[in-house]
C-alpha cells in the first residue's frame, strides 16, 4: 500500500487548482486551502502521441545538462584580431550579418545600409551606388554571424578586415567573436554609411582595436561573466543598459592600456571613446552570451533555445537538440521611445543578434534589476519585476552567477525551454534598439519587443517530429516512404 | 515655424527619463519637434541632422541639458520648454503601493511558494490535461483530474505512472471526490463518518454520500476514479488503488464501491479485492445484477447501496434506515396521476447527472417499457436527434452533444429550462422527472431558476387541459451551501414533488404511466 496515499488520507488536502476558477471557489467556500494557476491554452494542440514530451525526464535531463553548460561557461575576452584571420569559415568575400539567413533582395533598410557601409569600408566599392550594384550581383557571400561563432548588434555586419574581439570559454572548448561598438546615432550597425561613419570605422580598426587588443593580451584576458554579474547588481541588464558594465570594463582595461607603449594621445582617445559610449560593453556582453549559448547547443534531446536573433526582416531561433536549423517568423516592430524627430512609422522591424543576451539569461530577462529600462515602454519598476517573474515561467533554471537584488538575489531566469513557451504562450521579453527603416539613417529609438509566435510553433513541430521518430525508430523511414 | 533652444547648464538627466518627457512634449498641440538630450557631441550631431539648430549648441558640455523645440510659434515653443522642465523637475509621485507580483501561470511556480500543497485539481480541456497531470505526478502530487476527452492511451499511461509513483490519480472525467472532509469538484457537504467510497460515477458518489448523511451516518473519504477506469483497457487501476487505500485507512470501517456495470473480468477483480480487504463492503453496479458475491452485497441502485452501507456501519436494522415522508410523496403522485388527460402517455427525464439518468432508466424500463435516450441502455434506443424526444425519453443534458459551448446543467439551468418548455408543450407527456444536484461547485440557487420554469410549464399544460406532474430528485444534504430545505420549498411551491433519492423519484414516476 502506497505510503503517499495513506498520508493523503490522514489529513486535509491542500490543493492547487489548474483550470476552472469555479472549483477553487468551491474549495475556498469549504474553508479549504487552494492556490490557483492562471492556465491558458498552449500555442498549439500537441499530437496525442507527443503529450509525454512535455514532462519527459530524459528531456528534462538534457535541458539540465544544457543549461548547466550555459551557466558554467566562463567567457573571457583575450584579444582582438582581423575577422578573416580568426572567424571560422570566413573568406575574403564573406559578409556576416545578424539574424537568420537572408539575401540582399529580402534585406531590410538598416541591413542594406550596413552592407553598403561594409562595401565602402572594405574598398569593394567607391560609392554607395556601386556597392548596391555589386551587392545585387552577389559580389559577396552573406552568412549569419551565428553560423560562424559570431554575433553583432543590430545589422551586425562583420566584413573580412574588421577587427573583432576573441572570447574563449575558460570552462570549455568554444570561442566566439564580435565587432566593436561604434557609439550611438549614425553608426553602421544601425544602417548608416555616411563618410563620417566609415571614418569612425577606420579609426576603430587602426587605433582603438589594436590598442584594446594589446591591452587585453597584457591583462591575460578579462572575465566577462564577472563584469556582467556585477553590472546586473548595478542597474544594468547588459543589453539596453550597459553604463555600469562599461565603467567596470573601463576600470579593468585602463591600466593595461596605459602600459601599452602607445602615444598618449591615442590612449587618451581610446579611453575617451570608451567613456563617452554607454553601450561600449554591449558587444562584449553579447560575445559572452554567445560563448554561453554555444556551450549549451547540440545536446541531444534538449529543447533549450540557444539562439534568438533577427535580421530586420525575420526573427529566427535555434534549439539545442535540433541542430543548426533555423525556425523563423516575421520580425515584430518594437514598442518604445523615439529620438527627437522620429516615431513608430520610422521604425524598422526588430533587428540584431543582441537577443543572445536574453538567450543566456540577462537582458530583458534581468529587467527586474534594471528598472530604468522599462521607462521605454512607459512602465514602472514593478513592471520590470513582473517582466522577469514572467520569464521564470519559460526557463529551466535560476542562474547560479547572475543575481537580482530586487528579487532577494534570486538568480535570473535562464535557459528558455521551447516546451514552456508553447505551453504557456509566454514569449521571451527582449530589450532592443530601434533602427530607422531606411538605409543610411541609423538608430531612432529603443524599446521592448517579443518574437513572433511562429518561430516557436515551427520549432515545436520539428521537435515533436523528432521526438516521435526517435521514440519509435523506423517511423522516420516510414514517413519518408509515405512522402 | 520657429526653433527655440534652451540649455540648462550642468543638469544631468538619464536619457530614458529625457525620452519619456520628450514623447509627451511631442504630443503637444502646435509642436513639430521637441528634443531633450544631454549635450554630448553625438547628441548635438543628432540635433543638427534633425534640423533644430542654434549657435549656442556649439558650446555645450556633456553635462548640459538641451531642450530644443520646433513649433508653430514662439509662445508654443516657450510653453513646451517650460512644460518639459516642469515634467523633469516635478517630484515623482509615490508609486501607488503597487505589488510587483504576477499571477502564477504554471504549476511549478505555484509549488515553489506552496510546497506543502499535495493535490492538484485539473479542469483544463482534455487534449492538454495530460500535460498538467503528468507534471503534477512527477512533482509528487496526487491528482484530481476533472477534464474529460482525455485520450484513453494517455489515461492508461498516466494511471500506470501514478501507480509506479505511489500516487492517487482520480480521473480523467472525475466529477467528484472528498478527501479528509474536503470536497473536490462537485461535492456535497457530507458529515464525516466511517463509510469510505470509491466511485467511477460522480453523481453516483454524490447520491450515495448524501443519502448516508440523510440516514444519520457519514463518510471518511470519497475517492473518484473517473468514468472510464473500469474499462477493460484501463482495468480499474484507480479503483484498485482506492480500495487498497481505504482498506488500510483507520477512519474507514465500511467500503462502498460504485460504478456502472464493468467488464466481467474487471468486476470480478474488484469484488475479489473488496471481499478480501478485511472490511465489510457494499458494491453498487448501477443497473447491473443484484446479489451477493464472495460475501459482498451487490446492489443495483444507489439508494440501496447507501442503506446497506449505513446498516453495516451502524448495526441498525435495515427497516430503520429509510427516508421520511415517503407516503406523502406517493399520495401526491397518485393524486396528480388522476388528473391526467387521455393521450398523456410518456415520461420525460431531464438529467444533469449521467449516472442518475442511467439509474432512473434501469429502474423504470422493467416497469414502463423501452426508454429512448442519448445515453440509452441498449443501442437501438439511441435518439436520432437528442434534442427531440420520442415516447419515453430520458436525456443526460450534461453530455457533450448538449454542453459544447453551453454551461453544464450542474451550474446553469438554461439548457434544462429550454427542454422543459418543449416537453410541456407536448400533449403526449404524462410527467417530467429530473435531478437537481446541490453541493459545492454546483449552481448557487438552482431552484430560483427552475422554480419559475416548472410553474410556467405546469401552467402551460393546464391551459391545454392537462396536468403535468414534475418529480425532482434533489440530491444533497442539509449542510449544502444552497440550503436543502430552501431549495425543496421553492421547488414544491412551484408544484414539484421533491424527494432526496433518485431511485425513489424513478419509482414514483412509474406510477404516472403505469
Overview of this protein structure:
The complex is a heterodimer of chains A (483) and B (514). By secondary structure, chain A is α+β, with helices and mostly antiparallel strands. Chain A has helices spanning 3-10, 21-29, 57-72, 83-86, 109-122, 128-136, 195-219, 224-231, 243-259, 264-275, 282-296, 356-359, 381-392, 418-424, 453-471, 475-482, and strands at residues 14-18, 33-37, 75-82, 94-97, 141-144, 150-151, 163-169, 175-178, 222-223, 305-311, 314-319, 327-330, 335-338, 351-352, 395-404, 410-416, 430-435, 443-449. Chain A contains 16 helices and 18 strands. In chain A, strands 6-8-7-3-9 form a five-stranded mixed sheet. Chain A has a four-stranded antiparallel sheet with strand order 12-11-10-14. A three-stranded antiparallel sheet of chain A has the order 13-18-17, with no helix packed on it. The termini of chain A are far apart. Chain B has 514 residues and is of the alpha/beta class. Helix content of chain B is 39%, strand content 20%. The longest helix of chain B has 18 residues, at 446-463. The N and C termini of chain B lie far apart (96 Å). The chains are: A alpha+beta (483), B alpha/beta (514). At the A-B interface, α1, β1, α2, β2 and α13 of A face α1, β2, α2, α4 and β4 of B. β1 of chain A pairs parallel with β4 of chain B.
Amino acid at each position: 500500500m502506497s505510503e503517499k496515499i495513506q498520508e493523503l488520507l490522514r489529513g486535509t488536502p491542500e490543493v492547487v487548482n489548474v483550470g476552472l476558477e469555479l472549483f477553487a471557489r468551491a474549495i475556498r467556500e469549504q474553508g479549504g486551502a487552494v492556490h490557483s494557476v492562471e492556465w491558458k491554452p498552449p500555442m498549439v494542440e500537441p499530437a496525442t502521441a507527443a503529450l509525454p514530451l512535455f514532462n519527459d525526464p530524459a528531456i528534462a535531463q538534457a535541458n539540465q545538462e544544457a543549461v548547466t553548460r550555459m551557466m558554467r561557461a566562463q567567457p573571457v575576452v583575450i584579444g582582438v584580431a582581423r575577422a578573416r584571420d580568426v572567424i571560422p569559415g570566413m573568406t575574403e568575400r564573406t559578409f556576416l550579418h545578424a539574424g537568420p539567413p537572408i539575401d540582399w533582395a529580402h534585406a531590410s533598410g538598416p541591413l542594406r545600409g550596413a552592407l553598403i557601409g561594409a562595401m565602402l569600408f572594405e574598398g569593394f566599392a567607391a560609392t554607395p551606388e556601386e556597392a548596391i550594384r555589386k551587392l545585387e550581383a552577389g559580389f559577396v557571400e552573406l552568412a549569419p554571424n551565428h553560423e560562424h561563432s559570431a554575433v553583432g548588434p543590430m545589422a551586425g555586419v562583420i566584413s573580412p578586415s574588421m577587427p573583432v574581439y576573441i572570447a574563449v570559454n575558460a570552462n570549455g572548448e568554444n570561442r566566439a567573436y564580435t565587432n566593436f561598438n561604434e557609439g550611438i546615432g549614425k553608426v553602421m550597425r544601425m544602417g548608416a554609411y555616411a563618410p563620417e561613419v566609415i571614418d569612425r570605422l577606420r579609426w576603430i580598426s587602426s587605433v582603438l582595436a589594436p590598442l584594446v587588443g594589446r591591452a587585453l593580451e597584457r591583462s591575460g584576458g578579462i572575465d566577462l561573466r564577472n563584469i556582467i554579474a556585477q553590472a546586473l547588481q548595478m542597474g544594468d541588464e547588459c543589453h539596453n543598459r550597459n553604463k555600469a558594465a562599461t565603467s567596470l570594463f573601463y576600470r579593468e582595461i585602463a591600466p593595461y592600456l596605459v602600459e601599452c607603449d602607445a602615444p598618449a594621445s591615442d590612449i587618451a582617445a581610446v579611453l575617451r571613446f570608451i567613456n563617452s559610449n554607454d553601450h561600449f560593453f554591449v558587444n562584449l556582453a553579447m560575445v559572452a552570451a554567445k560563448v554561453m549559448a554555444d556551450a549549451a547547443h547540440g545536446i541531444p534531446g534538449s529543447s533549450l533555445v540557444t539562439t534568438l536573433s533577427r535580421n530586420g526582416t525575420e526573427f529566427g531561433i535555434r534549439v539545442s537538440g535540433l541542430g543548426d536549423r533555423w525556425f523563423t517568423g516575421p520580425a515584430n516592430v518594437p514598442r518604445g521611445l523615439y529620438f527627437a524627430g522620429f516615431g513608430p512609422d520610422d521604425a524598422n522591424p526588430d533587428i540584431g543578434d543582441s537577443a543572445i543576451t536574453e538567450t543566456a539569461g540577462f537582458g530583458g530577462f534581468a529587467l527586474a534589476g534594471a528598472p530604468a529600462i522599462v521607462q521605454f515602454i512607459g512602465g514602472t519598476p514593478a513592471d520590470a519585476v513582473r517582466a522577469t517573474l514572467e520569464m521564470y515561467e519559460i526557463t529551466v533554471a535560476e542562474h547560479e552567477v547572475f543575481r537580482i537584488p530586487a528579487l532577494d538575489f534570486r538568480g535570473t531566469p535562464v535557459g528558455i525551454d521551447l516546451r514552456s513557451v508553447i505551453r504557456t504562450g509566454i514569449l521571451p521579453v527582449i530589450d532592443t534598439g530601434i533602427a530607422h527603416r531606411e538605409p543610411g539613417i541609423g538608430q531612432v529609438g529603443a524599446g521592448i519587443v517579443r518574437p513572433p509566435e511562429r518561430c516557436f510553433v515551427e520549432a515545436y513541430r520539428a521537435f515533436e517530429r523528432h521526438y516521435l521518430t526517435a521514440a519509435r525508430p523506423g517511423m522516420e523511414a516510414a514517413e519518408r516512404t509515405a512522402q | 515655424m520657429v526653433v527655440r533652444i534652451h540649455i540648462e547648464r550642468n543638469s544631468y538627466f538619464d536619457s530614458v527619463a529625457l525620452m519619456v518627457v520628450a514623447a509627451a512634449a511631442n504630443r503637444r498641440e502646435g509642436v513639430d519637434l521637441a528634443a531633450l538630450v544631454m549635450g554630448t557631441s553625438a547628441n548635438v550631431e543628432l540635433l543638427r541632422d534633425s534640423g533644430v539648430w542654434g549657435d549656442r549648441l556649439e558650446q555645450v558640455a556633456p553635462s548640459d541639458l538641451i531642450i530644443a523645440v520646433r513649433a508653430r510659434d514662439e509662445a508654443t515653443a516657450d510653453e513646451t520648454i517650460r512644460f518639459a522642465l516642469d515634467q523633469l523637475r516635478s517630484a515623482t509621485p509615490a508609486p501607488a503601493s503597487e505589488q510587483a507580483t504576477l499571477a502564477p501561470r504554471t504549476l511549478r511556480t505555484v509549488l515553489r511558494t506552496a510546497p506543502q500543497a499535495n493535490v492538484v485539481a485539473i479542469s483544463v480541456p482534455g487534449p492538454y490535461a495530460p500535460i498538467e497531470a503528468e507534471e503534477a505526478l512527477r512533482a509528487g502530487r496526487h491528482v484530481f483530474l476533472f477534464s474529460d476527452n482525455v485520450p484513453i492511451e494517455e489515461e492508461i499511461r498516466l494511471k500506470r505512472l501514478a501507480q509506479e509513483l505511489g500516487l492517487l490519480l482520480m480521473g480523467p472525467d472525475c466529477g467528484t471526490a472528498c478527501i479528509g472532509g474536503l470536497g473536490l469538484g462537485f461535492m456535497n457537504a457530507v458529515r464525516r463518518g466511517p463509510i469510505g467510497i470509491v466511485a467511477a460515477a460522480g453523481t453516483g458518489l454524490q447520491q450515495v454520500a448524501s443519502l448516508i448523511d440523510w440516514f444519520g451516518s457519514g463518510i471518511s473519504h470519497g475517492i473518484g476514479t473517473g468514468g472510464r477506469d473500469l474499462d477493460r483497457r484501463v482495468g480499474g487501476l484507480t479503483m484498485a488503488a482506492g480500495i487498497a487505500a481505504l482498506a488500510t485507512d483507520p477512519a474507514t470501517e465500511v467500503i462502498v464501491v460504485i460504478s456502472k456495470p464493468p467488464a466481467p473480468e474487471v468486476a470480478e477483480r474488484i469484488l475479489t479485492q473488496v471481499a478480501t480487504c478485511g472490511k465489510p463492503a457494499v458494491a453498487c453496479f448501477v443497473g447491473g445484477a443484484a446479489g451477493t458475491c464472495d460475501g459482498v452485497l451487490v446492489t443495483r441502485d444507489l439508494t440501496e447501496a447507501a442503506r446497506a452501507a449505513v446498516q453495516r456501519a451502524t448495526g441498525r436494522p435495515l427497516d430503520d434506515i429509510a427516508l421520511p415522508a415517503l407516503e406523502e410523496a406517493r399520495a401526491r403522485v397518485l393524486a396528480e396521476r388522476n388528473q391526467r388527460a387521455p393521450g398523456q402517455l410518456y415520461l420525460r427525464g431531464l438529467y444533469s447527472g449521467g449516472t442518475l439518468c442511467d439509474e432512473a432508466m434501469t429502474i423504470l424500463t422493467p416497469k414502463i417499457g423501452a426508454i429512448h435516450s442519448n445515453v440509452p441502455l441498449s443501442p437501438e434506443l439511441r435518439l436520432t436527434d437528442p434534442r427531440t424526444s420520442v415516447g419515453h425519453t430520458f436525456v443526460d443534458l450534461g453530455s457533450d452533444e448538449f454542453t459544447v459551448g453551453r454551461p453544464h446543467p450542474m451550474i446553469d439551468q438554461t439548457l434544462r429550462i429550454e427542454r422543459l418548455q418543449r416537453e410541456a408543450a407536448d400533449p403526449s407527456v404524462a410527467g417530467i422527472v429530473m435531478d437537481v444536484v446541490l453541493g459545492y461547485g454546483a449552481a448557487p440557487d438552482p431552484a430560483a431558476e427552475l422554480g419559475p420554469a416548472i410553474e410556467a410549464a405546469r401552467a402551460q399544460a393546464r391551459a391545454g387541459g392537462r396536468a403535468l406532474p414534475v418529480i425532482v430528485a434533489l440530491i444533497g444534504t442539509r449542510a449544502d451551501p444552497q440550503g436543502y430545505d430552501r431549495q425543496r420549498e421553492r421547488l414544491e411551491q412551484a408544484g414539484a414533488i421533491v424527494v432526496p433519492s433518485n431511485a425513489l423519484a424513478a419509482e414514483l414516476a412509474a406510477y404516472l404511466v403505469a
